[in-house]
Amino acid sequence: MIAAALASLALAGPLEDGLKAIDSALAAQGGKRVEVEGDDFCGPAVQGPPALLANRTDLCRDTARAGLWSLQDLVASGGEKVNARLGVRRYVSSEAAERAHRTMVSRMGAGRVSLHTGATAWCYADAIWAGELLWTLEFGCHISVPHVPALGAVQKLIRSSGEPYKGAVGAIGSHSGWGWLLGPDGEPFTVPLGDRWWTLGKVVGVESGDVLWIRDKAPEDGNLGDKVSSLNPNTQCVPVLAKEGSWWQVVGPSGVGWASARYLRDATSECSE
Questions:
Q1: Predicted TM-score (pTM) of this structure
Q2: Angstrom distance (rounded) from CA 138 to CA 27
Q3: Mind listing the domains of the chain with CATH numbers?
Q4: Is 103 exposed, middle or buried (0-12, 13-18, 19+ CB in 10 A)?
Q5: Beta carbons of 265 and 201 less than 8 angstroms apart
């Protein structure tokens, strides 16, 4: 009884309307939506490089699962049937949703990104935000949406439900681990530098011929993390994701990690001009 009541609350409002539209689109093509258990887009079983895991974690932080379904009997143009996974998460507050959207816009706003710099998936996966909801649609690398009408209809519905943040409605994953932001028109979207980063830094105090190392984690008990990237002495406009004590989390040429704040200075106003 309690579980049923909670489910009813989770499906209230825009979510319930969205699911009804999806069911209608699936039925028109002979498909169906079946509730399933297991890990969703935000589950702990996700594997990949540190940057992918960090992006997926930050996108999913402060969310609770509202539902997970298998989309079944999706008929491809060749006659074979394929499946996909539809998930919905709900942020605990509008502030949590805004923080997650801002993070994704910051990391992916420059254009196409790879598994090692900012992508959120290895294969095809849409993560579309609509207020406090996060819709996710995942399907295999071997599936071509144009050849699966039911899947294309569901994807169009989810993308059209997105609410723009800095102009983007979500973050998508493509084949071989590439990703980018999605605009309201369903096309890849880029965000101006000044709107993309709330903090930008520059490297200072590093001698010519040396580098500032970026590590996978801030030091604990004096133990340095593994090196994931580096910055040259003259590097300007380094994206800064977080600051913890004497270490800053930054985006380097080949990975996201932590660098000593001793060699970084805030350059947000300079870089945004």
A1: 0.73
A2: 19
A3: 2-192 (no CATH), 197-271 (2.30.30.40)
A4: buried
A5: yes
